[in-house]
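LOG
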Amino acid sequence: MSCISQHSRVHPNDIHSVSEITVGSSRSMTESQFNVAIHDLVHLDAAKNAFEEFFKGNPKSFYGKTKQLFKILFIIMIPVTLLTCLITNTFCVTFTNYHDFSNIRNTLLYSVKLGRVIHYLQEERDVSALYLISSEKEVKTLLLMSYTETDMSLEELTTWTAGPTSIRKEFKSKEKFLSYLNKHRYELDTLKQTVVEELQMYTTLIRVFIKWLYDAVTEDQSGSIWRSLVAYQEVVAAKEYKGLERALGTIYYAAGQFSSIDVYLWFLESQDVANATFFSARQYSDLVLDLYRNFNEEELRYGIVTHMSSDIKRNYSAGNNNNNNNNNLQTAQWWFDNKTVFMDLLLETQSELADEITQMLDTLQINNVNQMWTTSVVFFCVFTITVVIIYVVFSLNDEIQKYLWTLSQR
């Protein structure tokens, strides 16, 4: 390229000069390479000019005015669009939370009604077992009352979610379940089934409803109130096992013995699972723990029941599975009544938890509504300001174009 530096100007008609440049530069660049380099420079400049030409317009023409206005609006709309997307995303997330919490609230109301069904089925099961043992008129009256309460709790269920249990024909609908239950009630005196069979029949029904309760709310649905919902479910489960312990203990004191070691193991299992499940509920909720502590301050009657439970274990472990005395039914009634005290505590805890969860959901819903209103107001303000800015820009651009047109006429 030494020859290029020696020539300050090259004329197109000077063929001799061009040939000298080509020959002199052959040592550093071939002719084809040089042509490619010149071609690239020309096209690069052409692309640059085309890009500038796209955004440049004649301010005197309508097309040029429109292009200038478009450039200004494009620059303005970039931050406005980003802000609008952010507000829209916030509103959508808040609305989704509001919708989810509304579903959880409906599910909670359904769970409360389902808990009532479970409670009255437990009462009916235990009284039915007591009736098969004693057949006393007072127990019969109590059993008929429990029938009415169970039917009323079932009628309050507005939703019947059979789910996987629909393979059992008695759970296909609420009407079929009531028909199945009433058929069993009418045939109670003629079936001649044992007390254990009676308990097993009711227990299988209750466990189905408890499964519905557990399936109603999952962790990903409940969000921040998941711990309270788990505590609620654990209390319901603990109440079921405590009810089974009450029924089996009633059988022991009324009959003076367990019919088999399997029934005794069933009693121990119910007692242990109830205690473990209720302990788990206390870990998930401070409300359950507080109610339990308040109950322990008045545990005179419950202490008697604990002593009676220990007697059952001690007598059976010592091989004395025969507690015959003249007051078996009275002792069984005493066990049943005192054990009901703890059952009532669990029912109260269940109701208190439901109220607490409802209050939490109400607070979250109020916050979601307020946030949606705030987001809507901000969006409206942004939209209004954007319209004003566009109008001002359009007017300003029009004034500038008029001024340029005036200057061009001079």
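LOG (cont.) second protein
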Amino acid sequence: MTACGNDNAGLDGSLNQSGSYRGEVTPAASGPARSDQVLVGVGDNSYYPPPWRTVAAGHQVTADCHGPAGQPPRSVTVTTTDGWKIELTHGSQTFTAENLAIEAPAGQLSVSQSSIDYDQQQNIDDLEQYGHASVYTDSVNWDTPGRGHIEVQVRNVEPPPEWGESPKFSMFMHINCGGDPSAVSSSTTNRPPN
């Protein structure tokens, strides 16, 4: 049996009969966690231990990519051993997160467009001043730096009302859903934006 033409394979052609395939989770290009760690959760590192805040190696976090072969995933489900479950939908800055271990039922969170606009302007300013800039913003960066890649740099997003008086939510990781592995190293640019 081969993966050619199968609608249930990843971008790399790996066969999966269920229409879902495992993505590779690695640290984000930047963020508050160490360079070898990913982060998901609420609150400040020094005050909120697991399960409030997961800081772990990428291989300790699961990303299931959902969608047909040869295309970016329609959605991605991220789960941690500390109880976090996050549902990302392709192209959207609104996502669903939950952690029943801390009484945080499923609720929607969103990265504001004004935050993204600010970061884009900062990247343009950095490019002009320093000759290089990040290709990412503090958001869910879909298909960046290449197709099938998701760079998540979500910083201090307001929690949903279902979580009560919860601290703000952050998530920093890179998810590769079958994209070109060499694209990850391309997190900065020296070219002006289109």
